[in-house]
Amino acid sequence: MRILSVASEVYPLVKTGGLADVAGALPAALAALGEDVRILVPGYPAVLDATEGLGGWLPLGDPLGAGECRLGLGRLPGTTLRVWVIECPTLYGRPGNPYSDAAGADWPDNHLRFALLARVAALVCEAGALLGWPPDLLHAHDWQAGLAPAYLALRAGRRPATVFTIHNIQFPGIFPAAALPALGLPRESYSINGVEYHGNVSFLKAGLYYADHVNTVSPTYALELLTPEGGSGFHGALAAKGDRFSGILNGIDTALWNPARDAAIAVPFSAAALQGKAIDKAALQREAGLAPQAEAPLFGVISRLTGQKGMDLLVGALPELLAGGGQLVLLGTGERPIEATLLAAAQAHPRHVHVRIGYDEAFAHRIQAGSDALLVPSRHEPCGLTQLYAMRYGTLPVARRTGGLADSVVDAAVPGAATGFLFDRGTVPELAAAIRRASAAYHDPAGWGRLRERAMQQDFSWDASARRYLELFRSLA
Ligand code: ADP
Q1: How far apart are CA 422 and CA 230, in angstroms?
Q2: Per-domain residue ranges for the chain?
């Protein structure tokens, strides 16, 4: 099967979150199963720099009247996976974050930037025979690729089967209805049975309405999206898909996230040889300027600093964490007030709290390796990847029972299956209680060791998830 995967970020070319991890690893896993997969991604400067062997440029003209563009073909670094890159200097020739300027404001022409991604995806599908590669299936990720199924459904001509994956319903890609003509969508698409969403255009709505099948990244999140509270106003449209809407838990790249072969950490370790983890903890304490206490439970956080991630709850529960003799190492960027509060906490407790505002892939690995537990107090969590990495690194998740967290972490109270600590409501007292439970459990080394061993034995590799995607793709193509 020829599968075209379309996403606005793909690791290791460009990444702001879990979407990039999935958009890089799932195509690789499908290719490993023998499928013919190609990726399509916007040519931001970082992507043009990092794509290997990029060439064979094909002029595409100016499909949206927003700038000339051309299509190049290269490889994902260090792999044989083929990547199509759209070069369009007027829309993509900006350094930094793919969605926003240096001050954090969304680019005002994001509707055009991501309409172009979808438009080129549709072009590749329609003219695939000319390119020598006619896709059998288009896999569009999140709102940035949401118009691709719409363009294909709204035009006559060759059309592959389409699957739209929702990685986060909180990002609906909403633009004023006045943008419609610039997007090249016909008037009749502006309807409840189309791209319309409460008087605006939603790219996410476009994807979920026009795709042959919609899925999201965990079974529990799929159920949550069907409720008025969890569906962000899309629950009706999703319910209307019936059995054409489902949930498939993400996997992780087990080569990239492997404590036994991780170049970013001080000493490698494995479930069978755990001595290295204690050394990694000491190294992390040293790097973070924390008191070198081997017996202090060390909590890690690697997260966007937003309300969705429950980072305000973390601020509220910090006194409890410190009262239990714990330490915190946090890496993240996000909402300025949360950043400021966390930095103030670090300043007040420099030997117990370390906060690094920024994006640092290698430090994320060292936090996973050196921490005892990882805090993931998300209000909503479609799948969540950090808790999966954590378990592989013998770092026990303390997480809210929601979405993919509920599907991947088993609470310490469940005999014979426990891998972490879950709490139900997104409140400070419940998070604080979970931290208390984890701290108490940490001081029982035998019990903690059993939890850790079981967490490290879990198999979250992409193989099983990729097979589920493949089954779905085959049923459609
Ligand atoms: P989301 O996609 O909602 O941000 P996920 O848990 O699915 O959350 O994925 C987050 C990914 O981004 C993980 O790979 C995590 O390690 C990474 N990440 C998040 N923040 C940072 C940061 N500040 N520095 C390095 N990596 C980060």
Answers
A1: 19
A2: 2-251+462-476, 275-457
| Residue of the CA atom closest to atom 15 of ligand 1 | 386
**Torsional sign, CA 163, 306, 331, 247:** negative
Q: Which of 21, 376, 378 is the best mutation target for the ligand 1 pocket, counting ligand atoms within 8 Å of the beta carbon and taking the most? A: 21
**DSSP per-residue string spanning 24-71:** HHHHHHHHHTT-EEEEEEE--HHHHHHSEEEEEEEEEE-TTSS--EEE
Amino acid at 477: A
Give the homologous superfamily in CATH for domain 275-457: Glycogen Phosphorylase B; (3.40.50.2000)
CA dihedral sign, ordered 321, 323, 328, 334: positive
Residue range 68-77: mean pLDDT, rounded: 98
Neighbours of 172 (CB within 10 A): 21
Residue 304 Cα: closest atom of ligand 1: 20
- Check residue 155 and give its pLDDT: 87
Interval 55-68: pLDDT, tens: 999 999 999 999 99
pLDDT digits (tens, 9 = 90+) for 288-330: 999 999 999 999 999 999 999 999 999 999 999 999 999 999 9
Ligand 1 centroid to 61 CA: how many Å?
36
* DSSP-based three-state secondary structure for 411: strand
Kindly write down the DSSP assignment for every residue of 204-241, as one continuous string: HHHHHHHSSEEEES-HHHHHHHTSTTTSTT-HHHHHHT
Is 73 within 8 Å of 55 (Cβ atoms)?
yes
Phi and psi at residue 292, in whole multiples of 5°? -80, 65
Q: Which of 357, 353, 293, 349 is nearest to 329 (CA)?
A: 353
Q: What is the mean pLDDT of the chain?
A: 97
Residue 441: phi, psi to the nearest 5? -60, -35
Question: For residues 403 and 220, is the Cβ–Cβ distance under 8 A?
Answer: yes
- Nearest CA among 262, 296, 261 for reference residue 278: 296
User: How high is the pLDDT of residue 156?
Assistant: 78
The predicted-structure confidence for 129-175, as pLDDT tens digits, reads as follows: 889 999 999 999 999 999 999 999 998 777 999 999 999 999 999 99
Q: What residue has token string 């983890």?
A: 277
- Superfamily designation of domain 2-251+462-476: Glycogen Phosphorylase B; (3.40.50.2000)
